[in-house]
Amino acid sequence: MPAFTFIEITMDSGIGYIYLNRPRQYNSLNRAMVREIVQAMEMFDRDEHVQVIVLAGNGKAFSSGADIDEMAVDNTIRLELLNQFADWDRIGQIKKPIIGSVKGFVFGGGFELALCCDVLIAAEGTEFSFPEINLGVMPGAGGTQRLTKLVGRTKALEWIWSAARITADEALAYGVINKVVQPEILIEETHKTAMMLAQKPALALRLIKEAVNKAVDYSLYEGMQFERKNFYVLFSSEDQKEGMQAFVEKRQANFKGR
Amino acid sequence: MFETIQYELKESVAYISLNRPDTLNAFTAQMNHEIRTAVKQASTDDSVRCIVLRGEGRAFCSGQDLSVIDEDTKLGDILTDYYGPMVQQLHSCEKPIIAAVNGAAAGAGFSLALAADFRVMAEKSFFMNAFIHVGLIPDSGNLYYLKRLVGDAKALEISVLGQRIKPDEAKQLGLTTAVYSNETFEEDVHTFAQQIVQLPTKAIGLIKRNIKAAEHLKFEDFLTYEAQSQSIAGATDDHQEGMKAFAEKRQPQFSGQ
Questions:
Q1: Signal sequence: where (chain A) (predicted)?
Q2: pLDDT tens digits, chain B, 257 residues: what are they?
Q3: What is the CATH number of the domain that holds B242?
């Protein structure tokens, strides 16, 4: 595996783990770190031994957001030329399920990174927030868009304008996250969820993700056309034949991801 | 480092003593803040296995220092800025907390005692929801805890009539775990705290968590929560020690880990 500076990666039973690894800075995101996260995700996405990707943070926090030291000196032209947010677009292209396993602070860019995940599991005591407004700026890596599509305009404006700290229970109530667990078992519960997904037919997992994501951008009619195509595609997979055969024979299916 | 309280660690017990005896330990914003800081400190210190809240002098705590309240005071802001964070800190603390009520616990002083897990009282002490006497309502989480401890009808009676609740009545109502004599109060509190110190501290924290979770979870979700908590408890050293001691027919020596 390639060497990374700001993240750690491991693989275990078909699950590719990515740990943000600047614990003393509460995993604040610098540009190089985001680049590494994207590279690791793309690597796992191509790796046939990986079914599911887990994104987590080392230390107390998931991520306290962008590295402000790095950003304080930026100007408009430099930002345009750097085009740093293009890296974030690549996260949206990952086909395999991404599980975010979060705790402590999930702030700013850290919150945006969490919103890129398909499943979010949070430890009790996790706090979500967009504090950008208090620095005279705003979310720039999808925060205003992803959060609004998730919770609607009313709450998105409230949370982003006020920089309020949202508790895990509140995030759960608004459908931002899937599950709240006690901190001691965050890793175990994340692993359990990853294992559950890893045992599903991989092609169906990815075509479902693709179709569900289309629902965010497409009209209902276009989305349904898209869904239909993906549905048909699965009928050319071995897993579809095995799945239906196993159902008829009343046994467990043995999926191969083909 | 504290001015309005004292913080002392004695045989794994963190004593937080309100230390404004001249005012019967009345709260000021600084005291709210210092209690919060002290509770946080005790919560994160592995050597602490029990927290005792007590008052210096003849009272436990007489509630808000009314001498600093004038017509410009925004009471709601005081709660939001000072009392709320203090009570939150107590509420989220996973270590066992004993309120050692050595004398009067009135107004927010009663609220402070209610935020503890155990209340033990000296014979001469009493509780009083004094807020009504100045036209206010019980605050600092008071009614949240009180209605759960004694039920709606009694909580209303105590809050509306604002009478003293002496140790005998407190005992009947379930507001106190034990009543100790005035003369031996400090020793008896320490003995009780030592009893708590010897228990598996992590399990106590998980019991507190589960009781809180039961307030808002559906039964099915509570059972999941309980199962997860039990896996956490099952992974502690104290569980291993408990099992081992049971098999060896001896008293367990819990480390709190």
A1: none
A2: 899 999 999 999 999 999 999 999 999 999 999 999 999 999 999 999 999 999 999 999 999 998 888 888 899 999 999 999 999 999 999 999 999 999 999 999 999 999 999 999 999 999 999 999 999 999 999 999 999 999 999 999 999 999 999 999 999 999 999 999 999 999 999 999 999 999 999 999 999 999 999 998 999 999 999 999 999 999 999 999 999 999 999 999 999 99
A3: 1.10.12
Q: Is A189 on the interface with B (CB under 8 A)?
A: yes
B141 and B233: one domain? no
In this complex, is the C-beta atom of B184 within 8 Å of any C-beta atom belonging to chain A? no
Which chain A residue lies closest to B217 (C-alpha atoms)? A169
Number of structural domains (chain B) is: 2
Please judge whether B231 and A188 are an interchain contact, meaning their C-beta atoms are less than 8 angstroms apart. yes
Beta carbons of B225 and A189 less than 8 Å apart: no
Query: Which chain B residues touch A181 with a CB distance below 8 Å?
Result: 228
Contact A185 B225 (CB under 8 A): no
Q: Is the same domain home to B92 and B212?
A: no
Structural domain of B11 = 5-197
Question: Is A189 in Cβ contact with B232 (below 8 Å)?
Answer: no
A7-198: CATH class: alpha beta
Which of residues 70 through 129 in chain B touch A, CB cutoff 8 A? 92
Q: What is the CATH number of domain A202-248?
A: 1.10.12.10
Closest CA to B199 of B166, B233, B173, B176: B233
How many other β-carbons are positioned within 10 Å of the β-carbon of residue A29? 24
Owner of token pair 């005071």:
B73
Prediction pTM value:
0.87
In this predicted complex, what is the ipTM?
0.80
- Burial class of residue B13, CB neighbours in 10 A (0-12, 13-18, 19+): buried
Element (H, E) at A101: strand A98-102
